[in-house]
Design brief:
The chain is mainly alpha-helical. It has helices at residues 21-51, 58-75, 78-87, 94-127, 129-135, 138-164, 181-185, 193-226, 231-259, 268-292, 295-313, and strands spanning 11-14, 91-93, 173-174. The longest helix has 34 residues, at 94-127.
Length: 314
């Protein structure tokens, strides 16, 4: 077919998780509940850290950034998913699809870097407690946060621009529940091998770079903890790091399987199932994992409840 016969796609049709109408309505209720709980859980963490001066530490500074990120992450995808499930119509304009690709990819990269920064913070706190407060001063915190948010913006611009170099002449049916760059790129007209290679390199930088920092940090932490004479000190260190490692395992395991796998061997149905974990499940579990056994958060909750109870009485 000649290029003169190709038409430009103005909208995509997201096929979603299912085409069965009753299942769509059930999923709508489930996703709405998950979205609400995710917003509430992450907002509670932000409010508690802001309200309790005892939580004004580097660890909780980065935790509030992670919670804010998760709120943005789910809001960039789930409201649209809910609208499509309720209406049964998965149409999305091309321009909105591009914006969603950019936001999701950028926020995903930021989460990778934030998790790496949080591992580095735990390494300094446990292995260098005497110099920790000096090293992780206010200026250093702002630097690390800025880098975590800034670098993915640049990498994402490159990837999205590489994708937009191609024309989308049909088909326009996307076997996914949101516009994710590797999936949309499969619909581009032309040879996308170079663009896929650039996406792979960006994924290596955004994923394996922070992951190497995480593995190195926790390797050094494990070595330091095992040398501790105090059993209570070892338990506290392991408890502090266990929650972070749980989040890292869930997020990195699913994202790596999505972005560092050759597109030629990927399965659309498998891609959707994988994306559910890092788009829907992980943002919901993060506040639960970080607060379930966190005594500092428990104390902050009790303090806020006492203040609320006092105000109601007087």
């Amino acid at each position: 077919m000649g290029m003169e016969n190709l038409t430009s796609v103005t909208e995509f049709i997201l096929l979603g998780l299912t085409s069965h109408r009753k299942t769509q309505l059930v999923l709508f209720s489930v996703i709405l509940l998950i979205y609400s709980l995710t917003l509430v859980g992450n907002l509670v963490i932000i409010i508690l850290v802001r309200a309790d001066s005892r939580l004004h530490t580097p660890m909780y500074f980065f935790l509030t950034h992670l919670s804010g990120l998760e709120i943005c992450y789910v809001t960039s995808t789930l409201p649209q998913m809910l609208a499509h499930l309720l209406s049964g119509n998965g149409a999305i304009p091309f321009s909105r699809c591009v914006v969603q690709m950019y936001i999701v990819l950028s926020l995903g990269g930021t989460e990778c870097l934030l998790l790496g920064v949080m591992a580095y913070d735990r390494y300094l706190a446990i292995c260098h407690p005497l110099t920790y407060a000096v090293i992780m001063g206010t200026w250093r915190l702002l630097q690390l946060a800025s880098v975590s948010w800034g670098i993915p913006v640049i990498l994402t611009v490159i990837n999205v621009l590489c994708t937009l170099r191609f024309s989308f002449c049909g088909p326009n049916r996307v076997n996914h529940f949101f516009c994710e760059l590797p999936v949309v790129m499969k619909l581009a007209c032309g040879d996308t091998r170079l663009a896929e290679a650039i996406l792979f390199v960006a994924a290596v930088l955004a994923l394996l770079g922070p992951l190497s920092i995480i593995l190195t940090s926790y390797g050094l932490i494990l070595s330091s903890v095992l040398r501790m004479r105090s059993a209570s000190g070892r338990r506290k260190a392991f408890s502090t790091c266990a929650s972070h490692l749980a989040v890292v395992t869930m997020f990195y395991g699913t994202v790596i399987s999505m972005y560092m796998r050759p597109q030629s061997v990927s399965s659309p149905d498998q891609d959707k199932k994988t994306a559910v974990f890092y788009i829907v499940v992980t943002p919901l579990l993060n506040p639960i994992i970080y607060t379930l056994r966190n005594k500092d958060i428990h104390k902050a909750v009790k303090k806020m409840l006492r203040i609320t109870d006092f105000k109601e009485k007087y």
